[in-house]
Amino acid sequence: MFKATIGRNELQSLIEAMSDLDLARFLYCQEMAGAYLAVGKFESMLISAMHLCDRVKLQKALGTDRDAWARSVAKKAQLEGSTLGSLIKILERHDIAPTDIAYLRWIKDKRDYFVHRLFHEDAWPGDLDEAGCRRMRRRLVAIQLWLERGERNIWLIFERAGFVELDRLDDGSMLAMNTGLYDLIQEDLPERASGDGKK
């Protein structure tokens, strides 16, 4: 463990003084940190996407009588308080393709392995040799890649389900529009046609 005030030069000196085994263990721990961040980013992106999409409903938690802002705040709090498994179950109740649900469950399984089962294999950094550290690093890098792909694929899954429309930009990024806005406009049209929506 490094002191909180360690500087670049001091860290570089410590790394240069490490044995090959200590360096392998250090790099293994770095990949653990990367995998932990990838888990957080994936779950955060899923929550953000579900919060954005008005067509993702949380009927059991949110009544229909709340105003839009209160409903949005309550929806975000409900999503943030849910486990990844619960979020996938919510999506399962919507018009998401079974293959997309299976993909999200596969991603969850990789995340669960990292969070709950990694050390069941006695993969403690201090107990592994260099080859063991390299093997576990490859596994952690793979988990990071799967989670990063999953983070991007959330939007493609939501597009296929009709939750968002995606505009693909020239730089490779995407602009997502909540298709639930169409639902709100459609609900408002009869009111305007009858004159009830006029001030």
How would you explain this protein's 3D organization?
The protein is mainly alpha-helical and 199 residues long. 65% of the residues lie in helices and 5% in strands. The protein has seven helices and two strands. The chain has helices at residues 8-16, 20-52, 68-80, 84-92, 98-117, 130-160, 180-194; strands spanning 164-168, 174-178. Strands 1-2 form a two-stranded antiparallel ribbon. The radius of gyration is 23 Å and the shape is elongated.
Write the layout of secondary structure elements.
Layout: H1 8-16, H2 20-52, H3 68-80, H4 84-92, H5 98-117, H6 130-160, E1 164-168, E2 174-178, H7 180-194
Helix pairs in contact: 2-3, 2-6, 4-5, 5-6
Task: Give a quick precis of the structure.
This protein has helices spanning 8-16, 20-52, 68-80, 84-92, 98-117, 130-160, 180-194, and strands spanning 164-168, 174-178.
SSE order, as H and E?
HHHHHHEEH
Structural class: mainly alpha
Strand tally: 2
The description of the largest β-sheet is: 2 strands, antiparallel
The geometry reads as: elongated
